[in-house]
Amino acid sequence: MMAPEAPVATQIVLVGGGHSHALLLRMLGMNPWEGVDVTLVSDVSMAPYSGMLPGHIAGFYSHDEVHIDLRKLCQFAQVRFIRCPVIGMDLNENRILLEGRPSVRFDYASINIGSTPDMVSIRGADRWATASKPVPALLEKWAQIVEAHGRGVTPKDIVIVGGGAGGVELALGMHKQLEGKTQVHLVHRAGQILTTHNVKVQGHFAKLLSERGIEVHVNESVVEVKEGSVLCESGTSIHSNHTFWVTQASPATWPGEAGLATDDRGFVLVSDTLQSTSHPRVFAAGDVATVEKYPRPKSGVFAVRQGGPLFDNLGAIACGEELKPFRPQKEFLSLIGTATASAVASRRWLAWESPKMWQLKDWIDRKFMEKFEIFPDMEAEAAKTLPPSREVVRENDPLIDLKRRAEMRCLGCAAKVGSGVLRRTLQRIRRESDNDVLSKLNDSDDAAVFPVPSGEQLVQTVDYMPALVKDPYLFGQLVAIHSLSDLWAMGARPYGVLVLAEIPFGKEAVIEENLFQMMSGVIAVLARHGAYLLGGHTAEGANLALGVTCNGFASEEVLLRKSGMQAGEALILTKPIGTGTLFAAEMRLKAKSVWINAALDHMLVDNAAAAEILSAHGATSCTDVTGFGLLGHLLEMTPKNLGIQFEVAAVPTLAGAEETAGRGILSSIHTDNHAASEGIENPEAFVDDPKYPLLFDPQTCGGLLATVSEERANDVLKALHEAGYRQAVVIGRVTERVGEKRAIQLS
Q1: Which domain holds residue 32?
Q2: pLDDT at residue 595, as a whole number
């Protein structure tokens, strides 16, 4: 077994999922930093590998083959992953500013966000052209073009602006994939393409482009991009159905606006230790950075080479050790693809095209990507008693003190989070929240007091959950939604909640940050529904966990019960199932980011609107689908005199769930839930159905399961779909039960 995690003394935030950070994370998974809490913030969970993108455009590689799955990589490295755009940095408070959610604190930060082509200075470029970066937008546009081409709708002209290696490879790849049926134009402001390469390489590709029928426009500076055309300074106008922008790299503006020192083009200026020359707590690598002593072209080669030094220096600074300088090489071998399973080797005077060069390039690229697909079994490695990466032995080190305090952790009431941390957390929440969620919270009282409206009843429920995700803000949202779902399932409206927050032991600032983030997630959900935080309790523990007691009100006549179904009614499920197997797969590094992202998107859709719709349409019974699985909760609902004609094929499932369940990756509670199969009349007929295991899959933030009259079923589905529950569906009918017949008949 792996050793227990050390108390957290230092927080490091990695901004961006570029090549340097990807390599750092893999190294971290194999050689962890003791006592360091690491977070990766990225607006995408699939990071493109630049070396294989031209091959993907040409059709040699699939989408997955050219992307690094950051969520899976973070799971391997035991790093918190936050999928969110970064909009800035507060260097006074040491915070990363995020879009649509609270900022994240850091002791040290690293920026590896790449660059984008400059489209601002050319009129119409940002509107009518597609930049080569960020890559997701490029690939989305290209996928649309390829799909249309497959239907026989091929663009007449494509214009690529920028004649460097990226533009040339893009032109060749697009020409090849569109089978030469599109006139591809390559526009370059210099007198020759590939200006950073030798004249032999320039001449070779000029000839190659000409032979392929790709029209090259040199000495042409684009001054305007319009819908359907590109206008050059010379007066030349080139017809264009689609325009792609592959020009000189341009940096994001927010690092400079935050106050980090930059070079004359706006790239973060760093020393040879990869630290900001103005703010040593901030590191930067890859295209976003310029090493002050060693300026180099913007190339993925340098980002890859910086991964190791960045890992060493961030780990060293977190442990108070000496940093080491990084000196990039001056030259490197370029392998430029020709879109024909051949490549040109370029370095100094070398210009050699050969299929062997493509084989070499393909081997190098696949070996690189293999690092992020095949991970070593670190528990097995740990069993070999490998020495820790950075065993801190200095007696004055804060991590030593944290360890001692953790070993002597008090129990009982002394285990709670300190009053100073709690007070500052609530003050910050009040300061940063523009709602009245805390207006009913009286810090001086020992318990919450609230009146029950006349003629209504108090509806109360409680839930507790260890962290399903490492992001405490997202975790707080999920637990709040999951807990409140019991109220919505009964037709009650939430009034307020009390929380029990368990925070892992660590440095006071770390505890405070985790508590703030988790409670901010809870409050974000409460604010959407006009509910209040009424009070709660905090405790230190081994892991992040959250319990929520929910209070709501409802009159007796609107309360929904589990057991009110009647024969002849339709059975409706509002959301797809599969969270149990998917998160079990994620723990085993067997889930794709796209699956987990989609699952989380569904989980963040709460059941409030669905409950209102079901109630308005006369639902007779209702429950939320959670830990016991779909069939377990259905059996709870079904009276002894009724049965269910259950349509297995109709059950909606989350992307990837059938695949992971089919591979035997199931939740730890799945075996217990499978006991519900005793209520099925004909299980043997469906044991091989890919959806069958998911009928017992435990759900977190699952949907509602309800019965309505057959006549109203279509109206209910229409309303649910319009409200955002697009996979809501009728999954069965209520029937009379005959004799000793079991409750559920699968069909």
Answers
A1: 10-115+251-329
A2: 97
